[in-house]
């Protein structure tokens, strides 16, 4: 083998390994997504500690979206606010996910605006005044009428908020309901089966997001993962991040992802659903790319969820 050939092969190998992919991790329903836990605080403390330990170990600058309504429980207000402070102390940032997690489809513009305002009382105290403000709509429902969408968009902008998109979601709330029940029943085999399926499904939807961005943008775009602060992710996040890293992902801030040209595409979606922004951007660009291959969770997972 000549030196030149060896060098070519080496460079080829390097370019495969160094395939640059970026992702930002966004975690909703802070401090803790309840799924029929008898005791909120001990669960919330354990999940917060574990999520932050894993995020730090993988050097992930994540953002957590808060429902301040969760903080207002007599005797626990300080302890619950401390959970949010832990996110900031760990180098993460926080955003507003409304006070009480209302569905924009089923409340008025005024009610929703009220919930946004109540949703950042503690947040504005905790965040540095220079920090950008991010908002995520519950269920990513951004308006089922043009009037609602326009009014809330304008209201958020006037309060200094940027709307947070997502390009990958993995039904973690569905898996989590069965997972919490399996934890309660000490059903170790089912816990493992759910974790394995969840991780495989997460990677399948990630691959889909990578692939579908090609016909829409002509390239792979930075991805935004949406998951929740729950027991399932506390127990799966380490392995999930490992698998992302094996696909060449580097984790970046939401700010950085939002600067990408793809994220400047308008979202003109008006509907009762909360689809991924890849779908919204595709529609806004007047394209008609099929999302038929977007994977669904396995049938048994959906059936188990419906039994709860
Ligand atoms: Zn939520």
Write a concise synopsis of the structure shown.
The protein is 50% helix and 11% strand.
Number of domains: 1
Radius of gyration: 20 Å
How many extended strands? Answer: 8
Shape: globular
As residue ranges, the low-confidence spans are: none
Number of helices: 12
Strand content: 5-15%
Order of helices and strands: HEHEHEHHEHEEHHEHEHHH
Mean pLDDT: 94
Task: Give the distinct bound molecules.
Answer: zinc ion
* Structural class category: alpha/beta
Please give the share of residues in helix.
40-55%
Largest sheet properties = 6 strands, parallel
CATH superfamily: Glycoside hydrolase/deacetylase
CATH classification, class level: Alpha Beta
Second rung of CATH, namely the architecture: Alpha-Beta Barrel
In the CATH scheme, what's the topology name?
Answer: TIM Barrel
Q: How would you explain this protein's 3D organization?
A:
By secondary structure, the chain is α/β, with parallel strands linked by helices. The protein has one domain: Alpha-Beta Barrel (TIM Barrel), CATH 3.20.20.370. Helix content is 50%, strand content 11%. The protein has 12 helices and 8 strands. Helix 2 packs parallel to helix 3, helix 4 runs parallel beside helix 6 and helix 7 packs antiparallel against helix 8. The protein starts with a helix and ends with a helix. The mean pLDDT is 94. The structure holds zinc ion (ZN). The site of zinc ion has 5 residues, from strand 1.
């Amino acid at each position: 083998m000549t030196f030149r050939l060896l060098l070519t092969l080496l460079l080829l190998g390097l370019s495969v390994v160094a395939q640059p992919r970026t992702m930002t991790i966004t975690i909703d329903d802070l401090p803790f997504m309840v799924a029929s836990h008898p005791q909120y605080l001990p669960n919330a403390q354990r999940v917060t500690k574990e999520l932050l330990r894993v995020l730090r170990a993988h050097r992930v600058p994540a953002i957590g979206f808060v429902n301040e309504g969760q903080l207002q429980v007599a005797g626990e207000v300080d302890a619950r606010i401390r959970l949010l402070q832990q996110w900031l102390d760990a180098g993460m940032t926080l955003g507003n996910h409304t006070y009480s997690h209302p569905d924009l489809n089923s409340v008025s513009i005024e009610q929703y605006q009220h919930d946004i305002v109540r949703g950042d009382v503690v947040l504005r105290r905790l965040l540095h005044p220079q920090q950008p403000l991010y908002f995520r709509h519950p269920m990513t429902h951004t308006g089922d009428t043009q009037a609602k969408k326009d009014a809330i968009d304008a209201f958020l902008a006037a309060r200094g908020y940027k709307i947070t998109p997502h390009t990958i979601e993995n039904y973690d709330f569905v898996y989590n309901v069965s997972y919490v029940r399996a934890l309660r029943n000490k059903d170790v085999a089912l816990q493992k089966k759910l974790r394995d399926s969840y991780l495989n499904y997460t990677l399948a939807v990630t691959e889909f997001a990578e692939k579908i961005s090609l016909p829409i943008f002509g390239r792979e775009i930075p991805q935004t993962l949406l998951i929740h602060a729950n027991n399932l992710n506390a127990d799966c996040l380490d392995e999930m991040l490992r698998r992302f890293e094996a696909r060449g992902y580097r984790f970046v801030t939401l700010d950085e992802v939002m600067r990408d040209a793809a994220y400047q595409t308008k979202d003109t979606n008006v509907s009762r659903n909360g689809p991924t922004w890849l779908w919204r951007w595709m529609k806004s660009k007047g394209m008609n790319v099929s999302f038929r291959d977007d994977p669904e969770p396995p049938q048994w997972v959906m059936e188990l969820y419906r039994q709860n």
